[in-house]
Amino acid sequence: MLRDATSVGLGAALGALARLALEGPLTLLGVNVIGCLLMGWLRPGAFWGRGVLGGFTSFSTFAHLTATTTPLAAAAYLLATLGGCVAAWLLGDRLARRRTR
Fold first, then answer.
1. Residue 44: which H helix or E strand, with range?
2. Which of 26, 51, 72, 79 is the Cys-Cys partner for 8 at CB 3.0 to 4.6 Å?
3. Residue 91 burial class via C-beta count within 10 angstroms: exposed 0-12, middle 13-18, buried 19 and up
4. pLDDT per position in the chain (101 positions), as tens?
5. Cα(90)–Cα(96) distance, rounded to whole angstroms?
6. Reaction(s) catalyzed by this protein (predicted)?
7. Annotated binding site for Na(+)
8. How far apart, in whole angstroms, are the C-alpha atoms of residue 49 and residue 52?
9. Contact assessment for residue 33 and residue 85, using Cβ atoms and an 8 Å cutoff
């Protein structure tokens, strides 16, 4: 249990550092969509999934960006993020299924 927690924590730190190197709302949208695609496609374990990709994607920054902008911009960003992330995960899942055939 401690080994898994340490692995996820180290992975999350790496993912957060990678995200920190990128800035801007559109960049965050891309990060979240790419993270969802990789989760659906690669189906990674604790270190890469919950750790690196969990730290790389960011719900807290997404929430901050939607709360500190105009209602119209927040609604557009919300729809783009939700639609993009779900579509990306579904695409990744489809790619994973093709790989295992």
1. none
2. 51
3. middle
4. 899 999 999 999 999 999 888 878 889 999 999 999 999 999 999 999 999 999 999 888 889 889 999 999 999 999 999 999 999 999 999 999 998 87
5. 10
6. fluoride(in) = fluoride(out)
7. 54, 57
8. 6
9. yes
